[in-house]
Design brief:
Rossmann fold; binds adenosine-5'-triphosphate; binds magnesium ion
Length: 251
C-alpha cells in the first residue's frame, strides 16, 4: 500500500514516445479490491498509461512516480513488476498460436523458478495459481486444453489471455480493451469472468472504448484526454454527468 493506502498510485507522470509528450502530469490511484475503469477516446493515452505502469517501453516515463503497494517502481524492470503482482492483458491479446491451451497456461512458470526469483531479489513474489483452479474458473478452456490456441475463437483467445495473466497471481490486473472485436454474447462472458476474478480478490484496472459497458461494471472511473485526467469519480457520477460523457467519450 502507498502512504495513503492505495494499491497503485501514479503521480504526475510525464511519458513520451521520442519527443512526443503523451502523458501530461497524469495522476491516478487504484484502491485495493475495486474495479477501476480508465476511459477516453482513441489516442487519449490509455494504453500508454498501462504500459507505463507495467514498465513496458516505449513509452519512456521521464518524470513523476508510480508506486505499487507503497514501493516505488522507477527502477523495477517489467518482468519483476509482473512477478511482483502487476498483470497486464495487452490490447493485442497475445496467445501463443502454435501451442495448446494447456501449454499457454504453463508459460507462466518459465520465469518463476526459484533461483531466478532469488537472483532477482524480489521481496514479495505473487504466488502462481494452479492450472486446475484456472480451469475451474474457465470451463471453456478446460474443454479445450489440448486445442491449439490459434484455432480458438476470438472470445476464447481473450479468455486464455486473461487466464494466462491470472496464473501469475496478480494483485492488480490491467485489461486493455478486453471486449474489442467480440460479439455481444461473448462480451457478457468476459464481463462475468472479470466480475468473478474481482470477487475473488483481484483488483482490476479496466480500459474500454465502450464506456457504457465499463461504467456498468466498475466502481470508479477516470476519463483521460490528451494525456490528462479530465474526470475522476464514482461510476454513477460519470453516468449522471452528460457533459463529460458527451465531450470526452461521445456517449
Ligand atoms: N509506439 C508509439 N510511437 C509513437 N507514438 C505513439 C506510439 N503509441 C502510441 N502513440 C501515440 O500516443 C498517443 C496515445 O496513444 P495510446 O495508444 O496511449 O492511446 P489509447 O488511449 O490507448 O487509444 P486507443 O483507444 O486507440 O487504443 C496517440 O497520439 C498515439 O498516436
Ligand atoms: Mg489503446
Amino acid at each position: 500500500m502507498s502512504e495513503n493506502g492505495s494499491l497503485l498510485a501514479v503521480e504526475d507522470v510525464n511519458a513520451y514516445y521520442g519527443e512526443s509528450h503523451i502523458l501530461r502530469g497524469l495522476s491516478l490511484e487504484v484502491e485495493s479490491g475495486e474495479i477501476c475503469a480508465l476511459l477516453g477516446r482513441n489516442g487519449a493515452g490509455k494504453t500508454t498509461t498501462v504500459r507505463s505502469i507495467a514498465g513496458a517501453t516505449p513509452p519512456v516515463v521521464r518524470s513523476g512516480s508510480i508506486h505499487f503497494r507503497g514501493k516505488d517502481l522507477t527502477d523495477v524492470p517489467p518482468d519483476d513488476r509482473s512477478i511482483g503482482g502487476i498483470g497486464l492483458v495487452p490490447e493485442e491479446r497475445r496467445v501463443f498460436s502454435n501451442l495448446t491451451v494447456e501449454e499457454n497456461l504453463h508459460m507462466a512458470d518459465v520465469s518463476r523458478n526459484k533461483s531466478n526469483l532469488i537472483r532477482r531479489n524480489i521481496e514479495n513474489p505473487a504466488e502462481t495459481v494452479d492450472v486446475n483452479v484456472i480451469y475451474e474458473a474457465f470451463p471453456r478452456l478446460d474443454e479445450r486444453r489440448d486445442q491449439l490456441a490459434g484455432t480458438l475463437s476470438g472470445g476464447e483467445q481473450q479468455m486464455l489471455a486473461i487466464a494466462r495473466a491470472l496464473r501469475q497471481g496478480p494483485d492488480l490486473l490491467m485489461l486493455d480493451e478486453p471486449y474489442e472485436g467480440l460479439a455481444p454474447q461473448i462480451v457478457e462472458d468476459v464481463e462475468d469472468a472479470i466480475d468473478r476474478i474481482n470477487n475473488e480478490g483481484t483488483t482490476i484496472l479496466l480500459i474500454e472504448q465502450n464506456a457504457i459497458a465499463a461504467m456498468a461494471i466498475s466502481d470508479r472511473c477516470y476519463v483521460i484526454d490528451q494525456g490528462e485526467v479530465v474526470f475522476e469519480g464514482p461510476s454513477d457520477e460519470l453516468k449522471a454527468d452528460e457533459e463529460i460523457r458527451q465531450q470526452y467519450l461521445g456517449v
